[in-house]
Design a protein that fits this description.
The complex is a heterodimer. By secondary structure, chain A is mostly beta strands. Chain A contains no helices and 11 strands. In chain A, the strands form 2 sheets. In chain A, strands 2, 4, 5, 6, 9, 10 and 11 form a 7-stranded mixed beta sheet that branches. In chain A, strands 1-3-8-7 form a 4-stranded antiparallel beta sheet, with no helix packed on it. In chain A, β9 and β10 form a beta hairpin. The radius of gyration of chain A is 13 Å and the shape is globular. Chain B is mainly beta. Chain B is built from no helices and 11 strands. In chain B, strands 2, 4, 5, 6, 9, 10 and 11 form a 7-stranded mixed beta sheet that branches. In chain B, strands 1-3-8-7 form a 4-stranded antiparallel beta sheet, with no helix packed on it. In chain B, a hairpin with a 7-residue loop joins β9 and β10. Chain B is globular, with a radius of gyration of 14 Å. The mean pLDDT of chain B is 95. The chains are: A mainly beta, B mainly beta. The interface between A and B is medium-sized, with 24 and 21 residues.
């Protein structure tokens, strides 16, 4: 199966700063990569699909890039509501797999 | 706007079968545009895809769980269901139902239920 590795595990960022999250796949997933945001006690919310396309209603400060095995989620200017855990998911290879998550916390 | 809601027992005894149902509102479960999926999250951990079903009844299961899983759909009730057999404490998790798009051969998930915690304990 395709192993998704996210780094760092925890990212400490001040409000208003940029956050850069990484996701690496153990084999190519083309551009079939999604990012989700999860807040405590809540279900994940789709942010990005196709590696770089924002889902409906997602603010422009969220952007995704990459293809193949290396992907990045960038939050350009962190707002208070952005402190959460972020997961990547590949949907190119069988079976579907998720990364272990990056927690974005207030510095 | 689509809404998904999980229901089922919150406590299951070891070796028994976990049974959950997801009720879909605000969207047609008969749509060929979606897969209807189950995903779980162990406490404090990441996400694990369990399996999904197409409205026709075609199913796709995670090979790691395939021998214990059955997913079914009842289009008349706008529901799909999960059965996971021979459960152990390792199956304790929050179980989510989710909608996956068929725009690509395999799906990402654009709508999720709120999740339901299932604890396996005697």
């Amino acid at each position: 199966e395709t192993v998704m590795t996210q780094s760092p595990a925890t990212l400490s960022v001040s409000p208003g700063e940029r956050a850069t999250l990484s996701c690496r796949a153990s084999q190519s997933v083309s551009s079939n990569l999604a990012w989700y945001q999860q807040k405590p006690g809540r279900a994940p919310r789709l942010l990005i699909y196709g590696a770089s396309t924002r889902a409906t209603g997602i603010p422009a400060r969220f952007s995704g890039s990459g293809s193949g095995t290396e992907f990045t989620l960038t939050i350009s200017s962190l707002q208070s509501e952005d402190f959460a855990v972020y997961f990547c998911q590949q949907y190119n290879n069988w079976p579907l797999t998720f990364g272990g998550g990056t927690r974005v916390e207030i510095k | 706007q689509v809404q998904l809601q999980e229901s089922g027992p919150g406590l299951v005894k070891p070796s028994q079968t976990l049974s959950l149902t997801c009720t879909v509102s605000g969207a047609s479960i008969n749509s060929g545009s979606y897969y209807w999926s189950w995903i779980r999250q162990h406490p404090g951990k990441g996400l694990e895809w369990i399996g999904y079903i197409y409205y026709s009844g075609t199913t796709y299961y995670n090979p790691s769980l395939k021998s214990r899983i059955a997913i079914s759909v009842d289009t008349s009730k706008k529901q799909f269901s999960l059965k996971l057999g021979s459960v152990t404490a390792a199956d304790t998790a929050v179980y989510y139902c989710a909608r996956g798009t068929t725009l690509t051969p395999l799906p990402s998930f654009d709508s999720w239920g709120q999740g339901t915690l299932v604890t396996v304990s005697s």
